[in-house]
Amino acid sequence: MDTIKSIVCPLDLSESSKRAYRVAKYLSDITGAELWVLHVIPEGTEFYSSIYPNLSDLMGGIQEHIEEKIDAVIDTKDPLIHRVVLSGKPYEEIIKFQEHKDADLIVMGAKGISTIEAVLLGNTADRVLRNANCPVIINRGDFKDYKIKKILVPTNLSEFSEYALKQVIGLARKTAAEIDLLHVLDIHTYDAGKVEDFMKSEKGKSLETKARNAMKTPEGSENVTINKVLARGFETASEIVHYAVENNVDLIAIASHGRKGISKLLLGSVADKVIRIAPCPVMVVKHPKLFD
């Protein structure tokens, strides 16, 4: 994603989706990307049309009302912003619309995403994350003046993480943001003394050196500041979020490791946990191999 040319922002008119719109609008402004603000009226009209003969007229009135509500949120004078209202299953229509427009990015709110019911049943955001073939940003923050000055890319030293890093190089260049490339060394003990002793040992020093050497900066990252950071922790997701909070991170870009169409963001995975507790927007990036 060297450049972002097109963004889809689902807007269900909840406060969560309105906050996500502000993030999407900032990204559109900074990159010059077209912004498609999409509202999906849930399906089910076929059944009711047999009961209410004038349902089509009623639905027309509902759509007009929704369009007015959307126009009250978006910048209607911005030629890059387009309002779209569709009907159907929200997550399916979002995915189909993104594919139809070949959009580079989806930006969504995190409404309900942290509940156990959402995890088990699958809400719109969860399903879009599982099935989208482009990066997806999930936002749960409330920013009045959102800007990206620091991007955090957690890495487990895999090709998936390397790909996630490549995807934000262009964005970092556009925003003049620094990138912190973070690798968390898993230390499976709560005893701080044992951790310090181990890291001071030859084995510990060797582990740090190998990890730092494995943290590669991609080609084409000239004029972008990439800081290599090692952290130690018992629980990787918590360390990632702790680092984001302590260092005023504006965006986390994290790799997904599951294939399209299956439950890849499983409860307990690092990416899933980060999405659910991070205070800043989180971009989930999928390697093309996952679509083979």
Mean pLDDT: 85
Tally of individual domains: 2
Within CATH, the superfamily of the largest domain carries the name HUPs
Along the chain, the helix and strand elements come as EHEHHEHEHHEEHEHHEHEHE
What structural category arises from helix and sheet content? alpha/beta
Count of alpha and pi helical runs: 11
Report on the biggest sheet.
10 strands, mixed
- Taking pLDDT < 50 over at least 5 consecutive residues as the criterion, the unreliable ranges are 112-122, 261-268
Assign an overall shape. elongated
Q: Considering DSSP H and I runs of 4 or more, what fraction of the residues is helical? A: 40-55%
Identify the strand order in the major beta sheet. 3-2-1-4-5-10-9-6-7-8
The CATH topology name of the largest domain reads Rossmann fold
Distance linking N and C termini = 19 Å
Q: What proportion strand?
A: 15-25%
Radius of gyration: 21 Å
Describe this entry's structure for a reader.
It is a single chain. It contains 11 helices and 10 strands. The chain is an alpha/beta fold and 292 residues long. Helix 7 links the parallel strand 6 (150-154) and strand 7. Helix 10 runs parallel beside helix 11. It is elongated and about 70 Å long.
Secondary-structure blueprint:
Layout: E1 6-10, H1 15-31, E2 34-42, H2 45-49, H3 55-71, E3 81-88, H4 90-101, E4 105-109, H5 116-121, H6 124-131, E5 136-139, E6 150-154, H7 159-175, E7 178-186, H8 192-200, H9 202-214, E8 226-233, H10 236-246, E9 251-256, H11 270-277, E10 282-286
Parallel strand pairs: 1-2, 1-4, 2-3, 4-5, 6-7, 6-9, 7-8, 9-10
Antiparallel strand pairs: 5-10
Helix pairs in contact: 4-6, 10-11
